[in-house]
Structure formats: structure tokens, C-alpha cells
Amino acid sequence: MKERLIGKNLKELQALVLSLGLPKFAGAQMARWLYVKKVRSISEMTDLSKVARAKLEECCEVGVTEPISVLTSADGTRKYLFPVDNGKEKSAIEAVMIPDGDRATLCVSSQSGCRMGCHFCMTGRQGFHGHLSAADIMSQFLAVEESDRLTNTVFMGMGEPLDNYDNVMRVIEILTSDWGFAWSPKRITVSTIGVLPNLKRYLEECRCHLAVSLHNPFPEERLSIMPVQKAWSVTEVVRLIRQYDFSGQRRVSFEYTMFEGFNDTPKHADALVHLLRHLECRVNLIRFHQIPDFPYKTSSPARIEAFRKRLSDAGITATLRASRGEDILAACGLLAGEHASKTEQ
Ligand code: SF4
């Protein structure tokens, strides 16, 4: 199997060309072809010598994986399904492109399946099929038809990004480096349920935004739908976040899916206010999209508004996040990949 070039940073590309007896500057040329010109083959890298291209082609390929299917929603949201082969198992992952005026946000997957097992999430239900390599993650950015007009990204697709820390960080390096996509970190948000040790690393090492899936301020209730609470309590997660500064460009938000009667009462709103008090943050309320065999349904619009107002009145900015791509099962918690759909039939 040939080595994939996408997903490599500048240093790795330079090391690769040096190992083939080629000049070091060819590494920077390749980075430009891969991440700026976005070519699909080594033969298109025309400022590399013929000898260099021939040597590279013997052992390497660009490595963009084309989608197996693309679904377009009535609201313009597009869901891409990609095959993944990690050498041991074949599976499928999804990426969702969400257009919004001048913006085009790509919601990317970081793992095939997920081992966090949140009860309300279709990805969690399908189990874990492996970490995505940096090439698999990077390929999502390069393979979508909208690649050239993407403005933002959220690591909120399948998987827990901080459970695949090194590969996610490698991709963020490519997205934010001058030799890569040259994006500002402000255009990138990583979402986590609070994998505490890697969250600390992320807060130390990365300037991108952070979104934390909170869903319930009471530890026992949160544990009943999110097994991760046992290892890393939401209280500890918020305590850690408080040690960092979010008054500048980097923002922190908390995701809160609304389940009727479970987490949408005034008592829950007040506990959330208490948990987040004096923290520079916002809360994104999310309508729940029903999945089979889960005991709660989404809160009514009136309850969501009452909850939102109670947070706002207490000084916490809270907004109801627009649901996009519901008709193609592209909304939060519904990504499952072809693999899961097949096993459920
Ligand atoms: Fe994994 Fe996120 Fe789904 Fe939880 S909500 S199971 S962390 S993908």
C-alpha cells in the first residue's frame, strides 16, 4: 500500500523528500500542491523535477478519498459519506457541509464510531471502529465539492476529537499554517465531552475555539446518559476551563441538548447558571432529534424558550442552535455512517 501524502505536515514532507534523496525545498513545494492547489495526483506537481515525481510515485500517493455518496438537504446542507479502511476493518464516516450566507462550515469526523457511548447519539450506538488517521481527517476537507469555499470547520462529526488528539492536532496544524490552508484559529472549533487530560493539553497548545457537550449540570443525571461522567466529571471539566482566559479571541461554548422533563426545568437552568457563573462563555441549546430506544423526547419550543430566558436573565448568553439537514439525517447526534445503518437493518 502506498503512503498517503495528505495529512503530513511540512516537517514530515521534508523528511520524506530527504529520505528519497531529493532536495529539502521539494517538501514546501509539495505542501503547496497538496493544501493550496489541492491536486489529486503527484503528476500534477509540475514544479517538481520529473525524477522527483517518478521517485515519489513509486512509494506515495496524494491519498484523497472520494465520497461514496452525497445527500443534499432542502436547506442546502450536504452530507458526504466516505469509506475508511484502517487495514483491519472497513467502515464509513460522514462529513457535513453547512452553508450559511457567505459561510460554509464543514463538520468533520475524527473517529469511525465512538467509544464514549453517549446514549442519545447514533454514532455512540454503533461502537468504535477506530481512530481516523490525519490523512482520513484531512481528506474530508479536500474531497468535498465545496473545498475551495469552506470558511469554517467544527470537529463535531463522528467521534470524540480529543480521544484522537495527535491526529486532530496535526490536521489543525495543516489548517492554520502558512504552508497549509492558512486559516485563523478563530475559524476552527473542537467539540468535546470533556476528555480531561487531553482537554488540558488542548487548552495549553491550541488557540482554536472549544465547545463542551454538557447536557446536564447534575453529575448523577449526566452520568445516566453520558458514561464519560464517571471518569471525568463535568464539575472538573468546568474547573479546568476556568483556569484559562476566554476574554480574547478564543471562545468557549457549552452544548446543551434539550430533553423534556430530564434537563429542561428551572432547577436545571439555575444549576447551570451556578456551574458557569462568571465564566466568559455562551450556551448553545440544541433540539433533540429522536432516536430509537431512548427514553426522552425533545423539549417543546415553549420550554426551550423559558430555559433560554432563565439563563439570559442570569447573564448567560444562550441561543437555540438552528437545526440543519434534518431531512438527510445530518443533524447533531444523527450521524451513523453506512456501516451502522447496515448493522441495524
Ligand atoms: Fe461520541 Fe460525541 Fe456521540 Fe458522545 S455525542 S457518543 S462523544 S460522537
Which key terms come to mind for this protein?
DNA polymerase, domain 1, binds iron/sulfur cluster, 2 domains, 345 residues, two-stranded parallel ribbon, single chain, ten-stranded mixed sheet, disordered C terminus, TIM Barrel, alpha/beta
Describe what you observe in this structure.
By secondary structure, this protein is α/β, with parallel strands linked by helices. It has two domains: 59 residues, DNA polymerase, domain 1 (Orthogonal Bundle); 260 residues, Aldolase class I (TIM Barrel). The protein is built from 13 helices and 14 strands. Strands 3-4-5-6-9-10-11-12-13-14 form a ten-stranded mixed β-sheet. Strand 5 and strand 6 form a beta hairpin. The longest helix is centred in the C-terminal third of the chain and has 13 residues. The site of iron/sulfur cluster (SF4) has 11 residues, from helix 4.
